[in-house]
Amino acid sequence: MVDPLNAWWAQQLVLCDWAFTPDPLTVEASKAVERLAALGVADRGELGWCLLETLGAGGAGVDPARLLVGLEVIALGGAAGWLGESRARAWAQRLAEEISAHHASLDAWLEALLHARSAEGWVRGDDGFFEACEALSVLEHDGEGVTWEMMQEWLATHAMPLALWPSAPEDQVWRLRAAFSPVVELPAGPHDWQGLAGWLEEAWEIRSPEDLVRSLLWLAAQGDRQAWDLDAGRLLEADAGVRRQWQEALAGGERDYGRVLLGFLDQGEPLEWAAWDWLRLIDLAWAGACLGWLEAREARDFAVHGADLALRRYSDWAALARAYQRGRSLFEGRNLLPALQADWALLLHSPVSPWRPALQGLVTEELIAASRDALRAWRGDPRHWTLALAAVREPEFAARQGPVPELSVARREEARHYLVETLDLHADEGVEALSRYWLPAQAHHLNQLAADAAHGALPPAETPFGHPVPDELASRDALRQASRHAATIHMAEKFAFHLQMAMDSGDFDASRLAGLAEALQGSLCRFYPDARRLLQAWAHWESLLPEPEQPPMLAEIRWHLEDPGSLFHWLDWRGGAWHEPGPRPTLAHFTAMALVGPLNSPAWSLPQPESERECAAIRDWVDGHYALHGAAELGEFLEYLIEAGDRQEYQINYAPYTLNHGRLASEIATLESGECSEEEGAHLLRLQRVRDNEDGCNEVDLAAWDIAQAVDLAIAGRQLGWLGEAAFLGLLERAHGLAGEHYAGWEEYARGLHAGFSFFMGETPERESFLAGFRQALVAWLSGAPPLAGAWASLDFPGARPRHWAPLHVDTLPGDSRTLH
C-alpha cells in the first residue's frame, strides 16, 4: 500500500534531480552527508537553521523554492541519520501542509517554482528543470503517484505525528540553545557541530573536559556580566566629566566597549545583559555533550542551570533576546540593538520556531531541582568557599571553580611574593602559620561594640587623655547599623584570601590547606544560615570599616548578593562539625592579652610558636629591651614583673621622697652639680619626675606598667617557644587577677600604664612625641575610636561588674556564667 506522504514527498524530489523512489529516506548515508555538505549544511546544527529558515516567518511570504530545498534537506537529513524517521516525516508533513495551503493544484505549485527559478536562479539547468516538471506531472497521474487532491485530503485527516523539535520534558531546555542553532534531535553527537574542538580552543582556550567545566561554572557564576554590571553601576552615578575620564582611560578594544556602554546609558537602555552569559552556558553545555566530554545528564544539568537563572530574570523570549543582544554588543564593541529584529526574527516569529512555547514553564521544577543539586555538587568542595570569598577581591578566582587547574609558574611565584611581602609568611613556617590570620577575638570586639552602640552604651568620648578624632568617633558610633550582623565575615574574608594565596603558591601541604578551607566553611555556616545573610553582613561591615588606602568592595559584595548565579548562592551551606581555622581564646584570656594596651598592636588571637625567621626578630627585641636569652631567664623575669616589677622600685627608691620634699630637692641638686654616670642620670630624671609629679606618677598605681610588660613578654615568649601553652595561659590568668586587684576599670588602668610608661622611659629627644602618641593611642583604646585600635572599649575590666549588652548572634568568645551568648 502506498504511503501518501512518502509518495508525494518523493515526487517533489524529482524536481531536485532525484530519481523517483517510494521512500525518500533510502539514500545511502554517506552520499546523503556529501549532498548536504554541497548544499551548505555541514552539520546537524546547520540543519536546524535550514529547517527553521525553510518556513521563514510563515504566511503568504513563504518562498516556494526554499520549501522545495527544505524537502530535499529533510530527506537527506533522515537518510544521513541526523533526523529520526518520525521527525523527518513530521517536517515533511509540515512543509506539505504549507505547500498545499498556498497552491491549490500541481500546476499552481509548478508555476510558483518556475517564477522563483527565473527570479533567483535556484535550478541548475533550465532544460533539466522543465523535464523534471514533466516527469512530476506523469508521476502524479500514474499508479505509483499521489495526486494533489489525494494529498490534500490525506493532510486534512492526519494530524502531525510528532513535534518538529525534541519535546520530551527533559529535552525542552535545549530549545534555549536555538540562540546559536536549533537542536533538532537527541542525543548530541559529533555530527551536531563540525570543527567544534578547534573552535573551543580558539574562542575559549578550552582543551579538555576540565577546562570546559571550569568555563561552564564561570559563566554561571560570573561571566562577562560582573565587570559590565560594576562599570554600569559606577557610571550611572557619575557626571558627564567622570564618564568622559573613564572612557579616555580605556585602552585598545576596550574603548569600543566603553562607547557602547555609555551609549546604553545615554539612551536609557536597561543595563542588564546576563543572558549573554547564561545562553552561552547552555551552548557550551551542548558542546560538551557533542564531544562526549559531558554525559547527557551532566550536560542537561548545566543547561537547566542556565535556564533556571534566565527564568528568574526574564519574563519572555523577547526580553531574553534583547538582553543577549545588549551583552553581545558590549562584547563586540558595537551596538547591535538596531539589528535586533533582523537577528532574532526567525526565533521570535516563525510559526515553526522552537521558541513557540512560553519561556516561563519551559523546564519542569523536577529538572530544575536536579540541576541545583548537581551544580552544588560541582562546588561541594570546601575549597570553593575560599574561592568565593577571595574572588570578591580578585574576580579571576571565579574561573577556578570545578576541577583544580594547573597554575602557571608565574602565578605561583606571584602568590609566593604576596605571602612574603605582604604577610611575611614563608613556606618553611608550615600551614599552622596561617592560623595567626584567623582573628575570632576581633570579631567578638566588633560585635560587642555594635551591640553597645545599638543600645547607646558605648564608652564616653571624653577620656582622661583627650577626645577622639570626630571622624573616628563617628565610625565607631555607626557600628550600631551592623548590630544584627555577625562580624566574622570581616576577618574571615581576609583569612580566605591569604589561604587562597597559600594554595596558589604550591608550597604548603595541600591536604592541610583543605582542612583549613573546611574549617572556614564550618565557621561561616555556624554564623550565617545562608548566602544572603553572609553577604548582607559583609556589605554592612565593609561599608562601616573599609580598608585604608584600598577601594571599597561594597559594589562587588552587593553584586554577589543580587546575582542569582553568584557562587555564594551555590556553595554547600550545610557545613560540618564546627572547628575553626585557628584557636578561639576565652573571653578572660582575650581580656588579659588586652592588658598590653598600646605597648603593642592588639592581640586578636592566641599567639603560637613562630618560625625561626620570625623568632630571630623577636629574640632581638627581647634581648635589646630586657637582656633575656632563654626560657629560664624569661620565666624568672615574668615572675619578677608579676610579684614586684618596676612598681616596687618606685615604692622603694622614689615614693619616700614624696614625704620629704627637702631631701628630694637636695638629692636633685647634688646630682645636677656634678658629673653623672648613665645610671645616675636615669636616677636624676626619675627624681625630677617625682618632684614634678609628672603624669601623676606619685598619685596612681604603677602596677599597670608591670602587668602590660608581663603580658607583652609572655606573648613574645609563647611565640619563641620559651613558654608552653599551659604556662602562657597561666601567666595570662595571673595578670588578669593582678589587674583586678589593683584597678577598678580601664580608665584607672590606663592612667597607671601611662604614668609608668612616662616615669620609666629613658631620656630621648623623641620623648614628647612618644608620650603624645601613647596618649592618642590610649584615647583610641578607651573610646573604641577607631574601632580596631584596641579592645578595651568592648571588654569588661578584670573583676569589674559586667556592663556590656549581649550581641544578637553567637559570634562571641566563650566567657563565664555572667555572659550571655
Description:
By secondary structure, this protein is an all-alpha fold. The chain has helices at 4-13, 29-38, 44-55, 64-80, 85-102, 106-120, 126-141, 148-157, 196-204, 209-221, 225-236, 240-249, 254-267, 275-291, 296-313, 317-332, 340-349, 365-378, 383-393, 409-423, 440-454, 470-477, 488-505, 510-527, 531-544, 554-562, 587-593, 612-626, 631-643, 645-653, 661-673, 678-692, 703-720, 725-742, 746-760, 767-783. Among the domains are: 4-158, no CATH class; 172-190 and 200-378, no CATH class; 383-569, no CATH class. The protein has 36 helices and no strands. The longest helix has 18 residues, at 85-102. The protein is elongated. The relative contact order is 0.07. The model is unreliable at 816-821 (pLDDT under 50).
Secondary structure category:
mainly alpha
User: Ends: how far apart?
Assistant: 86 Å
Share in β-strands: under 5%
Please, how many helices?
36
* Largest beta-sheet characterization: none
Radius of gyration: 39 Å
For the secondary structure, the number of strands is: 0
Average residue-wise pLDDT? 93
Residue share in helices?
A: 55-70%
Rough outline: elongated
Q: Give unreliable regions as ranges.
A: 816-821
